[in-house]
Every structure is written in structure tokens, then in C-alpha cells.
């Protein structure tokens, strides 16, 4: 959870030297290298069934492609703390998607949690005059990331029973890097090759790839195998708290009383929305949702 919380801060640091597309593309390349090495060492490669190729392509379009576009460009307009709070609502939207598409039954406390989370977000982003206190474009881009993660979640639920999580992430990152390559070549490459590169400039991108995209995921998958998916997933609600704390200490971002109250309401709603409402396949899908970032 600490590694994933730091990912928002590392992106902010990387964005001082590189534009979003460059950060995402290089990060995906590093991630693919590390995960492929891990799969080779553990001999965990699997063969993709012909009928599942379309699902993997759809998966990668949702995340990392649209998800990273929304989150990365959104982070250029809003703070790391705001982004982490909005991203933390993904399980709420995923629960709603499961209810609408898979007809998953929800309890009254789940419905109450969903409503409470949205109220918490409003408390967090609205000022006393009832208008947005943050950049609307940034909020819209983060919303794109959230909705992309929901699409990713619903697609992923059809793959988790047939493929290992680390293998799924590696395949989607390979496809994602391929999708981002044309954007990188057209938009950023000419500037990238003339920019004097230092290790300190690459350091936050390497940290994103090693700790957020690889290390955190492997640690989380290990935890899921030992304490179960539902219990492990509850810990993800701590991410915005950690991000707010680290942003305050390292980036100098300010937290108001209103922000703190909004965050508490959002996290309380998240706990309520996830109380024993989903079947196993939906829970397994949530293991990866929004976390390949």
C-alpha cells in the first residue's frame, strides 16, 4: 500500500523532467523487463488461448492505455492527494458495474457506502460556495481513469480464473507499451532525444516501475494468497491516507480540515461498499484494478 501511495508522488517528481506520455511509456518498458525476468525465473509463462486474445486487447485498452492517459494527465492538473482520493473510489464504481452487468446483489450497507463515498468526494472537491475548488479538466481526466479501471475490472473478471495475475499484468503492459509507442514517437520522441538525461531524472520512473508496477503487485498477490482477497483488498483504502501524508511531508502539499473530513467520509464509504457483497470472480478482479499504475 505504501508503494502504491508513493506512485502518485513519484509521478509528480518525474513530471518535472518528462511529459506524461514519456513517463508512462518508459515505465511500462521497465515494468515489462522486470516482470518478464520474474516470469522466466519462476517459469510462470502461460499460453494465451485463441478466444482470449480479444479480452487481453480490451483489457490493455482500458488499462494501462486509457487509465494511464487519464491518471497521468490528470496528475498534471491536480495534487497527488486529490488524485489518490478519486482513484480510491474505483471499488465503488466496480461494485456498481458488477451490480448493473453481472446482477450482483448488494446489501443496504453496500448501497449506503456507495452514497457515502460520493458525498465524501463532494466534500473533498467542493468549496463553501458549492463550486469546484480544483481544476475541472484534471477532475475529468481522473474520472476517465476511474471509468477505465471499471471497464478493466469487468473484463478482467473473465480472465482471472484462467491465468496467473502476474502473467496478466505482464501481457497487458506489453500491449500497453505497444499502444503508447506511436504516441511517444509522434509527441515526445523529438524532445526526448535532445534532453540531457541524468540518473536523477530517471530515478522516479524506475521507482514507479520497480516498486509500484512490480514490487507492490507481487507483494499484494502474495498477501492475497495468505490472508484472502477480501481482507487484503480492504487495505487498499489506506492508499489515499498514505499519499496525503507523504505529499504533505515530501511535496509540501497542504491539507485542510475539509480535505481531511472528506477523506474520512470517502474511506468509510469504501469499507461499507465492500462488505461481503461480491462473488469470488468479482473479488479476484479487484485485486488488479487500478493497481498496475
List the helices and strands and how they pair.
Layout: H1 2-14, H2 20-42, H3 53-74, H4 80-87, H5 90-101, H6 108-125, H7 136-156, H8 165-192, H9 199-227, H10 229-234, H11 239-251, H12 257-273, H13 280-286
Helix pairs in contact: 1-4, 1-9, 1-11, 2-8, 2-9, 3-7, 3-8, 4-11, 5-7, 6-12
The number of E-state strands comes to: 0
Mean pLDDT: 85
Proportion in β-strands: under 5%
Radius of gyration: 18 Å
Principal-axes shape call: globular
Write the H/E string, N to C: HHHHHHHHHHHHH
Unreliable segments (pLDDT under 50, ≥5 consecutive)? Answer: none
Domain unit count: 1
Portion of residues within helices? over 70%
Going by helix content, strand content and strand pairing, the class is mainly alpha
Distance between the termini: 12 Å
Individual helix count = 13
Textual characterization of the structure:
This protein is globular. It has 13 helices and no strands. The chain starts with a helix and ends in a 7-residue tail after the last helix. It has one domain (2-286). It has helices at residues 2-14, 20-42, 53-74, 80-87, 90-101, 108-125, 136-156, 165-192, 199-227, 229-234, 239-251, 257-273, 280-286. It is mostly helical and 293 residues long. Helix content is 74%, strand content 0%.
Amino acid at each position: 500500500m505504501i508503494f502504491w501511495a508513493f506512485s502518485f508522488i513519484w509521478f509528480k517528481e518525474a513530471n518535472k523532467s518528462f511529459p506524461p506520455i514519456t513517463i508512462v511509456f518508459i515505465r511500462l518498458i521497465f515494468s515489462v523487463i522486470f516482470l518478464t525476468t520474474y516470469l522466466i525465473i519462476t517459469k510462470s509463462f502461460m499460453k494465451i488461448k485463441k478466444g482470449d486474445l480479444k479480452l487481453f486487447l480490451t483489457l490493455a485498452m482500458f488499462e494501462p492505455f486509457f487509465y494511464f492517459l487519464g491518471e497521468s494527465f490528470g496528475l498534471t492538473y491536480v495534487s497527488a492527494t486529490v488524485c489518490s482520493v478519486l482513484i480510491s473510489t474505483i471499488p465503488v464504481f466496480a461494485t456498481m458495474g458488477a451490480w448493473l452487468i453481472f446482477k450482483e446483489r448488494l446489501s443496504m450497507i453496500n448501497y449506503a457506502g456507495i452514497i457515502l463515498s460520493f458525498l465524501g468526494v463532494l466534500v473533498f472537491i467542493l468549496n463553501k460556495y458549492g463550486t469546484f475548488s480544483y481544476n475541472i479538466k484534471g477532475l475529468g481526466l481522473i474520472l476517465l481513469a476511474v471509468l477505465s479501471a471499471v471497464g478493466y475490472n469487468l473484463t478482467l473478471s473473465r480472465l482471472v480464473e484462467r491465468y496467473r495475475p502476474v502473467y496478466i499484468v505482464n501481457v497487458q503492459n506489453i500491449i500497453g507499451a505497444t499502444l503508447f509507442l506511436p504516441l511517444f514517437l509522434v509527441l515526445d520522441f523529438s524532445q526526448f532525444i535532445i534532453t540531457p538525461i541524468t540518473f536523477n531524472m530517471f530515478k522516479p520512473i524506475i521507482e514507479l516501475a520497480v516498486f509500484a508496477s512490480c514490487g507492490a503487485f507481487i507483494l499484494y498477490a502474495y498477501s492475497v494468497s495468505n490472508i484472502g482477497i477480501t481482507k487484503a483488498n480492504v487495505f487498499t483504502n489506506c492508499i489515499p491516507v498514505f499519499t496525503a501524508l507523504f505529499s504533505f511531508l515530501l511535496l509540501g502539499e497542504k491539507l485542510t480540515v475539509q480535505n481531511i473530513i472528506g477523506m474520512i467520509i470517502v474511506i468509510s464509504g469504501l469499507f461499507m461498499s465492500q462488505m461481503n457483497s461480491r462473488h469470488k470472480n468479482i473479488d479476484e478482479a479487484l485485486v488488479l484494478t487500478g493497481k498496475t499504475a
